[in-house]
Amino acid sequence: MAIPHAGSGEPINVQPLGAHLQSTKTKALFKSEDLEVIRLVLLAGKSLPPHKVPGEITIQCVEGKIDVTAHDKSHLLVAGQLLFLAANEVHGVIALEDASALVTIALKK
Amino acid sequence: MAIPHAGSGEPINVQPLGAHLQSTKTKALFKSEDLEVIRLVLLAGKSLPPHKVPGEITIQCVEGKIDVTAHDKSHLLVAGQLLFLAANEVHGVIALEDASALVTIALKK
Questions:
Q1: Local structure of A20: helix, strand or coil
Q2: By the 8 A CB rule, do A107 and A33 touch?
Q3: How many C-beta neighbours within 10 Å does residue B20 have?
Q4: Which residues on adjacent β-strands are paired with residue B99?
Q5: Can you tell me the mean pLDDT for B66-81?
Q6: How far is CA A3 from CA A33, A53, B17, B38, in A?
Q7: Are B81 and A55 in contact (CB < 8 Å)?
Q8: Could you give the ipTM of this predicted complex?
């Protein structure tokens, strides 16, 4: 069942949050049939513990610096870098600086 | 069948192309089981004619300015704006300025 947060055809701002980063929470920008896009906000030192999702994902760092641990190694992502992770790949994320990232998830029925 | 252009776990640069835009061609950054990500490069005045794909897509303008026609109206996207389009939504793209965009496609088996 589609739970759109933004409808098909409405532009969504995904610019860096800048001065608003510290007051912004992680949220789903939309979730539909095949895709979910989340804007992840992590303040310096905060982390997401290792987890996995059933579909493939991309993590695009929008601002700041994050470290994604997957495939038993760490991957430093700065603004403008994108990481692709296979389905069911266990991954954890830690922010090395206040950071936001776009996470796109291929949904599995 | 997965045809990875970049493996799971390798960061991919998706920064603005800047001075390299005019000499860069559209290319798939990777194509896997569930997701394909393309960096679309369109010079001012160039366009993609109306077409559709079987899965949902997002179009994220990285630099410049593009107009996406879908749902019988036009959607102006500047850098940092993302448009979600439903599966099989007919859409065309024209560049109003030299532009690049990340296109993420949910693949259908």
A1: helix
A2: yes
A3: 10
A4: B42
A5: 94
A6: 8, 18, 34, 26
A7: no
A8: 0.91
